[in-house]
Amino acid sequence: PIEYEGTFPLPEAQLDRFSMKLSLGYPSIDEEQQILSRRRQRKNDSFSLEAVTEANGLLALRELVETIHVDQDIERYIVQIVASTRQHRHVAVGASPRAALALLKLSRAWAVMQGRSFVLPDDIKLFAPTVLIHRLILQPEFWSNRNAVQSVIEETLSTIPVPVIQEQG
Q: FRET pair for 122, CA 20 to 30 Å: which of 4, 130, 148, 161?
């Protein structure tokens, strides 16, 4: 928002409680026109939602996520990514252990959604930007650079070695 009248930015300790930060941006011209068209066709602001699961189904999915295998090398990869944000030269305050936990949870849930019983390094790379972006506080001289946090995350992901499964022969 341009103005924060009546609202205040959350302190870092409270931002850390959110698993990830998503930025959806604006819809395309065609998508925005569809929004108008659908509203006009409904002739009402209200719309109906359909349940995609019941409480038991959701609980079963949560239990399934807990069965997803995470190799120790993948755990180490997560920890190395998060820890490296704390030592980056442009970062005043790096990601906390909550970031590592969020990466673990999100990557396991993603594996379920992909029909896998294990987490891949690519799952970690997929979620690292959205998990880390709101958790890093840059040095003051980088505050005005809108892409600085993203650059730190990209650099971090490019410098941490990706775990590779060794073939057994």
A: 148
